[in-house]
Amino acid sequence: MFAEERHRLIVEQLEADGKVTVAQLAQRFDITRETVRRDLAQLESENYLRRVHGGAVTITEASTREESYVVRTAIHSESKARIAQRALSLLPVSDASVIIDAGTTTEILAERMLKSTAGTGLVVITHALPIASALVHSPDIALELIGGRVRGITGASSGARTVQEYSQYRADIAFIGTNGLHAGFGLSTPDPLEAAVKRALVASARRVVLLADESKFDQETLVCFARLEDIDTLVTDQQPGTELAAALEAADVEVVIA
Q: Which one, of 177, 120, 171, lies nearest residue 144 by Cα?
């Protein structure tokens, strides 16, 4: 088989499975692993894939890739709505403080709070402008807005000022989002500044609830901001796979399926 044909088949398999391994490709094409590595290097130079330990992943799995706000709002919208609705039941009844992280699922949660009695009497702390915009008109919610330089892609504050302001709080509960949830790497995000804010946010809450749909499972992006042991509850739309489920159980994380 010519190299060009192998390359085409490798790309097709990546599109179907999201990843390939050197060992599997060597067996499939009956070639040496060194030849597979050369094939993957060539395809990476042509921007068809990203090489990782033991194989390769699609470009969309790159550790620094971050979708635009419009794209993130559109994808997995039904799952995010179910997760946000389920998260409403985890809100304190009243007279409590709540941190709401930036993110499309947490934004839906804020919108649902506005349309229900779930947020009555709560103090809500956020650094996300879309969430603050959703809650500012509620007569029943006291809103605290964390300042800093706003990232256009998230509409949320970041930087040293944001981190410092969060360090002054000790909220009853925090609802957070993540770009990746991995058994070994934990929770991660592509941007170091955002990771610093999320790390401070997690440290500022007595209880941490992660809202994440199944597309975040087994994903590793550039910067880890929390370990599995740092979260108390995961609200999601699907049961995690065997490895992630075992790691969550070992970390004593409650998994709630919406």
A: 171
Identify the CA nearest to 208 among candidates 173, 167, 158: 173
How many beta carbons lie within 10 A of that of residue 162, not counting itself?
23
pLDDT in tens, 6-30: 998 998 888 888 789 999 999 999 9
Question: How confident is the model over 85-109, as pLDDT tens digits?
Answer: 999 999 988 789 999 999 999 999 9
The encoded tokens of residue 13 equal 């398999």
Beta-ladder partners of 158 = 149
Could you give phi then psi for residue 27, rounded to 5 degrees? Answer: -70, -40
Q: How far apart are CA 257 and CA 26, in angstroms?
A: 39
Q: How far is CA 62 from the centre of its chain?
A: 14
What residue type is assigned to position 4 of the chain? E
CB 209 within 8 A of CB 174: yes
Q: For residue 198, how many C-alpha atoms fall within 13 Å in the half-sphere facing its CB?
A: 29
Which secondary-structure segment (H or E) carries 151? Answer: strand 149-151
Calculate the alpha carbon distances from 74 to 68, 71, 92, 247 in Å: 10, 5, 29, 30
* DSSP state letters, 191-257: -HHHHHHHHHHHHTBSSEEEE--GGGBT---SEEEE-GGG-SEEEESSPPPHHHHHHHHHTT-EEEE
